[in-house]
Amino acid sequence: FVVEFRRRALPFENTIPGSGLLVYRINTLENGNANGPPDEVYVYRPGGTLTANGTPASAHLNNLVGRTAINKATNPSPFLTNGQQGGLNIYNVTSADTLISFTLGAFTGVNEINGIASEYKLNQNYPNPFNPNTKISFHIKESGFVTLKIYDILGKEVTTLVNENLKTGIYEINWNAANNSSGVYFFKLQTNNFSDIKKMLMIK
Description:
Elements: E1 2-6, E2 20-24, E3 88-91, E4 103-106, E5 111-114, E6 121-122, E7 133-140, E8 144-152, E9 157-166, E10 169-176, E11 183-190, E12 195-202
Antiparallel strand pairs: 1-2, 3-4, 5-10, 6-7, 7-10, 8-9, 8-11, 11-12
């Protein structure tokens, strides 16, 4: 796989999906776009699977087009040639001008620890303070779309830990902040019927 920042410009790059971060494979013998390009197969593109093209024209990531992450919870997700999740987590993808930046980390996913929840609840992370790993648990009373996001002290989004439909239950997820600086962070749980935010402290 190749992860590369490319700009859509003449004379050679005007046929790529668009300026931004692109993840592609140069191997025509492997599964990619069902009828993919002869040399560059954009493996991660919205709606794409091993057998469906999805939308290769939207394979590029940058904050101007609203695609700033690839992980288990996003569309596209980082699937492998056997259809399973690859564990890739790219986030905080910025603009696509002359420079682009992003964060790369492991995506551990959210774990259901109990199938019964009588209320919505966001628990305090543990341990707190932490370095660099901490666990966040929460209760989901009714099935629905759930997001759990991390913000820095200035209110800038650092990463999205959960961005998917979850059934009722109690969940836990780990945040590895090894690539982040010491300081105060906030984590926010959002559902259709509930929202809560808590503060945590990382000390390196």
